[in-house]
Design goal:
The chain is α+β, with helices and mostly antiparallel strands. It has 2 domains: 14-44 and 60-123, no CATH class; 126-201. 42% of the residues lie in helices and 21% in strands. The chain has 3 helices and 8 strands; from the N terminus they run αββααββββββ. Strands 1, 2, 3, 4, 5, 6, 7 and 8 form an 8-stranded antiparallel sheet that branches. Strand 5 and strand 6 form a beta hairpin. The N and C termini lie far apart (115 Å). The relative contact order is 0.15. Keywords: Membrane, Transmembrane, Transmembrane helix. The chain crosses the membrane at residues 20-38, 70-88, 100-117.
Length: 214
């Protein structure tokens, strides 16, 4: 009588792979769901975020200011990828996997916490006293998906501020913000950081002439 062949041991690699997939996929999905659930506030609209302005004097400086964020991002990604590759060759994926998954989960937890804090910061803004702003420069912003109907990006100075600021005046014409003129800034401060506001011109731009009827 022949003895039956022993049954093969169950393959646990599939379960391990599914656990890794779950740890990799669930944190981003949770953050995306949180982003959908949070009410949030669109940056466009009546109040716009106040940002520090950088005035440049030549095209080379303007090119560097525009390209600097991309270059810094590429350098950071390259450095992280280099460190990861060196550690992978030295330790191997089996030893690195728990630490990588832990860092991955912590990264998305931090992003979720940032979303909640940012939403609370915008929702609990406090009004600030109106200020007179000296207009330095104004440029037209054409309508698009981000800015809606378009408007004017205004560069201005505030008393006591070390650097110029810029603000998008939605739906307002460029003629309302002549360089050297004064506008009124109606601002609100976030609960913990940041300022939002809108500009009101003290000028009365001339109406667009209409063709005379014949």
């Amino acid at each position: 009588m022949t003895t039956p062949a022993p049954l093969p041991a169950p393959d646990s690699s599939a379960a391990i792979d599914w656990r890794i997939f779950a740890w990799a996929a669930l944190p981003p999905l949770a953050v995306l769901m949180l982003r959908v659930v949070l009410p949030g506030q669109v940056e466009g609209g009546e109040l716009q975020r106040l940002q520090t302005a950088t005035l440049v004097s030549d095209p080379a400086e303007a090119f560097w200011m525009a390209a600097r964020p991309l270059l810094l991002t590429l350098l950071t990604v390259s450095a992280v990828a280099g460190v990861f590759y060196a550690a992978l060759r030295r330790l191997g994926w089996a030893r690195m996997r728990p630490g990588v998954l832990t860092l991955w989960v912590l990264l998305w937890l931090a992003m979720g916490a940032w979303l909640m804090a940012s939403d609370m910061n915008r929702a609990q803004r406090q009004p600030l006293p109106d200020q007179a702003a000296k207009v330095l420069l104004a440029r037209e912003i054409l309508p698009n998906k981000r800015t809606g109907p378009g408007g004017t990006e205004v560069y201005f100075e505030l008393p006591g501020e070390p650097e110029p600021l810029r603000l998008f005046a939605q739906g307002q014409p460029t003629q309302a913000f002549v360089p050297g003129s004064t506008a009124v800034l109606h601002a609100e401060s976030g609960r913990w950081w940041g300022r939002w506001g809108r500009l009101t011109s003290r000028l009365n731009p001339a109406p667009t002439p209409t063709p005379a009827a014949r």
